[in-house]
Amino acid sequence: MNGVTNNIPMLAWSWYWNEYDFELHVSKNAYDVFNAHRQYNNKNECGGQLFIDISFNNGLWLSSATLPHPSDKSSKHWVELNSDRCELEQNLARKNGLVFAGYWHTHPQEIPMLSHQDKISIERFYVMNKEVIRSPIFIIVGTSLCQDGIKAWAYKNECYSEGLIR
Q: How many domains, the chain?
């Protein structure tokens, strides 16, 4: 729990959802994980989990994006995170005062968009976890280095809402 010591992370950018009046600050550490795993040169998709630190006095921070894991299954167009590693990461994050927020993964397109398969996965995840997480965040990392090369969606009330960069 970093916020207790007031060591505010370095800011990469913030996403804002107007309809929810919700802002999420993205730490440089999380950005570095996304940037290091872009899906270039026929690589398979990869991804990890997202954790928020709620202890800062200046808002919610996406402080941790876990790394892809060798036990995950993937191809060029889908990824399935290993459930055992996800459980271990969530337990460790909870012990460190972090809150599970959702998932991130890569796409081979420059500017990522939610695919039909992404929507099916998100809806399945929500049905299984709606008592634990009411509005999960899903981040897709594209190949473009511009700001639109990484996008986030919140899923709430059976609707997808894209976060706007501030």
A: 1
CA 4 and chain centroid, separation? 23
Q: Residue 88 is part of which domain span?
A: 3-165
Residue 62 to residue 9: CA distance in whole angstroms: 10
Question: Which residue, among 75, 78, 63, has the nearest Cα to 32 in the 3D structure?
Answer: 63
Torsion region of 15: left, alpha or beta (phi above 0 gives left; psi -120 to 50 gives alpha): beta
How buried is 100 (Cβ within 10 angstroms: 0-12 exposed, 13-18 middle, 19+ buried)? buried
Looking at residue 20, the DSSP 8-state letter turns out to be G
Q: What is the tens place of the pLDDT at every residue in 5-62?
A: 558 899 999 999 999 999 999 999 999 999 999 999 999 999 999 999 999 989 899 9
Of 83, 29, 74, 24, give the one whose Cα is nearest residue 47: 74
Residue that has been written with the tokens 């167009």 in this structure? 77
Q: What is the helix (H) or strand (E) element at residue 37, kind and residue range?
A: none
Q: How far apart are CA 150 and CA 135, in angstroms?
A: 19
CATH classification of the domain holding 8: 3.40.140.10
Global pTM reads: 0.94
